[in-house]
SipW-cognate class signal peptide (Thermococcus thioreducens), 200 residues
Amino acid sequence: MKRLMLIPFAVALFSLYITQASFSYFSDTETITAELAAAIPPSSVAVFYENATLTFLCHAPCCHHGGSSDVSEVGGVISTAKNDPSILEHAPQCFRRICSEAVLSGIYIDNKGRDVVLKGVVVKWWGGGRLNYLKIDNMTFNVNSTSPARIGIGVTLGGGIHTLELEFGSIVSAAFEITFVLNDHVEETYFVPSIEFKWV
């Protein structure tokens, strides 16, 4: 009879032991995970855009079928945009036709620490147009998207400086917002590039 009475007590004691052991295990695991996460600092990555330049590729003849007024308007945009990029926002449709492509360059990702994965890039601009492609070093990613363009990258960036280039079609934006999604943090940039024109 005493043995029968001891069985429920033994079961209860064993259950309490398992519960405490499980709690202790998971608690210790969480503590170790948190300590490891705290011990590994975010990757040392910086984005430089001080020399960012938006170069419009313009095709002659200028608005041959558009009339002299259109030619005059486009000439006015080209002559003043270098000093006042905001004029692009009010550029006539003829400007989009003759300067239909633009390349944004002079953006650098500087990785001063361990390897880091660039999971994606989000590019935002204003005034219409499309992002045709994005290029990181010698790797090209076809995009063909309006703003905001979200591009999956999934590339490991080693230590050193990496170049970024973007090609747009029919764009008149004077400002850009680019977000770099890394595997351990996010870098956000907003800038107004210098404006250049190149006849091709």
Q: What stands out?
A: Residues 21-37 have pLDDT under 50 and may be disordered. The longest strand covers residues 101-111. Residues 61 and 98 are 8 Å apart (CA to CA). The radius of gyration is 29 Å.
